[in-house]
Design a protein that fits this description.
The chain is built from nine helices and 18 strands. By secondary structure, the protein is an alpha/beta fold.
Length: 374
């Protein structure tokens, strides 16, 4: 995922929320699918098929894991128990922290608003540069977890005055059942949902997820299948399909590309990503993030600012109206009206310095700025 978070940082964030942490055993008795799982019970997975000889096949993402009894999925968050497939992470978040929506990043969603950000252990990708590898590349038995049912998490968010919950830090596909039940409970309580995802998910689970989500931040990791296969353990075509399906469903979406020196920073690749998005809509915001050495790519340098600025210029030339650089104090972190070119949302890092939008329109020329502003 895209938000750098050390183990110390996320544990501090959990403590700051005062939500109470406890390590939850993953050796729980199974529970049938349907409704929230009770404490001490596993939640049956939502998308899977029984195979012969007690084996199961997961159908939530293109990895399509086939597992025998007692064997855990590639995302480390689901297990075959007695010929049925269960979630190991349901109700066991390892991160609950207040975060600005801009951190996802979502610049066109309620600027200046914060949310309760949550995630569990596990991920269905294996990105070599993951900033959160110590929670994404392991199962829940290796993280410090909190026991929070969907209704408890929503109640905590509501009590603290948060109108948004975000699923982020690790891939929500890996804790899909928990995310879905939390989103359903949130909607009953007037709380909105945002999701940060790599988009490596099958069509039916994505369609179900979109019913309950208000905003998506999707990471478009690179322009080639080789990069996706060798660096991320995923498929480019599946991510492009997900982006297209989210757009066609008319869900608000912003796209993220983390630029890694020497790996996905070539001009042709940046152009390809921008052209693909512009082919859907020139209004889709594209965020270029700066790589920081981490996990298996600690030997690489940080992304030069000049590389980010060049990517920004290429994306703008391809017709995208809203292209951002996550650089504190940089003019490319500000939202400008595409008609009169006046700044409408000025930012310093993740902080909104000024917001002159009037009901989602430019205060100077009344041009509508796409997003969720009211």
């Amino acid at each position: 995922m895209n938000n750098p978070l050390s183990r110390r940082t996320f544990l501090q964030g959990c403590a700051a929320c005062s939500l109470g942490a406890s390590i939850v055993s993953s050796q729980a008795a199974p529970k049938q699918q349907g409704g929230q799982a009770a404490p001490g019970q596993l939640k049956e997975a939502m998308f899977w098929e029984p195979l012969t000889n007690g084996r199961t096949k997961c159908t939530i993402c293109p990895n399509a894991c086939e597992r025998g009894n007692g064997v855990v999925s590639l995302c480390k968050s689901r297990i075959n128990k007695g010929g049925k497939f269960y979630s190991l992470t349901y109700g066991k978040p390892c991160v609950i922290s207040p975060d600005p929506l801009a951190k996802n990043p979502l610049y066109h969603v309620m600027p200046g608003t914060s949310a309760i950000a949550t995630s569990t252990a596990g991920c269905n990708l294996t990105c070599k540069y993951c900033q959160n590898w110590d929670i994404s590349q392991c199962g829940p038995e290796k993280t410090k977890n909190m026991e929070n049912s969907p209704s408890e998490l929503v109640a905590q968010a509501k009590t603290k005055g948060f109108s948004w919950i975000t699923f982020t830090y690790t891939e929500p596909v890996s804790y899909y059942e928990y995310a879905i039940d939390t989103a359903q409970e949130a909607r009953k309580n007037g709380i909105r949902i945002a999701v940060s995802t790599a988009g490596f998910v099958c069509t039916k689970p994505l369609a179900e997820l979109m019913k309950h989500v208000d905003a998506f931040s999707v990471t478009y990791k690179g322009a080639t299948q080789d990069f996706y296969r060798d660096v991320c353990g995923a498929n480019l075509a599946d991510v492009q399909r997900s982006i297209t399906e989210i757009f066609k469903a008319k869900k608000w979406m912003e796209v993220v590309n983390l630029i890694i020196p020497g790996m996905n920073d070539d001009d042709a690749g940046i152009k390809s990503i921008a052209r693909f998005l512009a082919g859907l809509s020139r209004d889709i915001p594209l965020h270029f993030l700066r790589f920081a050495p981490a996990y298996k790519l600690q030997h690489l340098q940080q992304t030069p600012v000049a590389t980010l600025e060049k990517a920004h210029a290429i994306a703008r030339k391809e017709g995208l109206k809203y292209v951002y650089l996550a650089l504190p104090g940089h003019q490319a972190s500000t939202t400008y009206c595409p008609s009169c070119k006046k700044p409408v949302i000025e930012r310093s890092g993740l902080t909104v310095v000024s917001n002159t939008l009037k009901n989602g329109h430019c205060h100077k020329c009344s041009t509508k700025i796409p997003g969720i502003f009211v």
